[in-house]
Amino acid sequence: MDYHVLRWKFEDTSTAVRQFFVKVHRSSERIPQRPDERTLIVLNVPPYCDEQSLDNLFSRFGHVEAVQLQKNSTDLPVTPSTSEFFRPVEQQPIKGFKVAFIVFRAPKSIEKVLHFADNSGSEVLVLSISKSPVITGVPAWLKERRKPLPSLVELKREIDSFMEDYDTKVEADKQRAKEMVGIPDDDGWTTVTRVGKKRGIRQEDVNTAEAGPLAKKKNSEKELADFYRFQKSDGKTKQLSELRRKFEEDKEKQALMKATRRFKPF
Prior knowledge:
RBD_domain_sf, elongated, Alpha-Beta Plaits, RNA-binding, 6-stranded mixed beta sheet
């Protein structure tokens, strides 16, 4: 289905008219938070549009149950964070233009939106109204800057609560793993789980242990060879002496072959 153009402007006194691209949201996968017959997808949403401003804008067409903002139209909805101070990575503020999913209470509301987009003529929607103004620019920056810092007591309380929940979950996972030991699954495989503080022996360690005294002897010989610096120096001296001795022997053989006229270098 093609998108419909929904014209709007920032304020009632604004001369610049902007555009939303809207259509009924339909997905091959069933998403409970976005029922197809009641969800409108909106593209070209600027950064300063938040959930509240879009709720006000589309409420003229019917009761809005939810407004979901995503970076892309293919992103799945995320569960809202209950934390006052922390947000998961997927719930960080979206930078730049975004996509909105408007969930109405009744399917007829979407029909009203599409009808308005196709037959509004010169009428345009207004985003920022007197009872719910949209703050942008320097005022928005100042408002964010003047927010009070979180209370250390409340912050510590939330962190402690999170850690308690985490410890409970970890303990439950350990208990579940213990209960599954020795129980075959549907395919007949038996789960083998080691529960304890000590780590298991790696395969390389097992192979080394099985090698026995022979491996230890070889390692010992490698470790003792050229252990001291003077051993390396003596070894090089002996090697050079041996090379000189062979060189002198070769010279004597060549001289003897010349004397007996059996020297044929080519």
